[in-house]
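REQUEST FORM: STRUCTURE PREDICTION
Request ID: SP-0412
Submitted by: Lab K.M.
Chain count: 1
Length (residues): 232
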Amino acid sequence: MAGFITSDPGSLSIRAQRFLSRCASRRSYGRGLTGGELRKRIQDVYGRPFDNIVTLLDQVQTRYGGLTYRSGFFDSTVLFSPSCEPDDPSDQLEILYAIQTGGPTGASLYADGSVAIGLDQFEVREFPSLDSVIECDSMFDLVTNSEARQRYSFHVQTEFLDIISVLHSRGPFAVQEVREAAGERTRWFVGDSLWIYLTGAWSSLGLGVSSPVAKVWGSEPSIVDSVRELLS
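STATUS: Completed
RESULT:
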């Protein structure tokens, strides 16, 4: 367990640490090629070394490998099972199966450690790190265990960045962004008995999800209704 995320949480928030302690476990998975074997395969396929990928794979397998829990972002149970077995020099070299869902969605890692979410062969860079995915998922656990009594989920017709601008200006709601839980097209905002989740990540793939999705939780129906009117 040395170095595994639950024993060495690093910069994870207390909220995320509590989420993992309550909801996560570790299971076995296939690590695939590592170390010298992976370095040789990369050299054979690409004709040059990519030592940063070899090092990154070792780091993420040590820290996250086998982590499993129910993810709100993926709406599925996920397994962190990073591996790298390149065989086609025309493919971008990345760490695959960083997050598996048991379905067509999942996540891979680029050489800088950033997270690309995808559906089949379509993907977009979304989170700066796997820790950010965990922070995002910990927010779903927070609202599940909060005083929120009302929840709405709906498609947003306004442009994603316009909505973010309104919420950053506080508008009629005194909310603050949870920055450690943010992706490029995913945001969490919290206020007094109010939680707002926005994501345009899946719609950016252009695969039938035509607009960003908002989920709003609140302690009073009137608060949630007001947010819905503003965002839609």
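NOTES: The chain has a mean pLDDT of 90.
Reviewed by: T.R.
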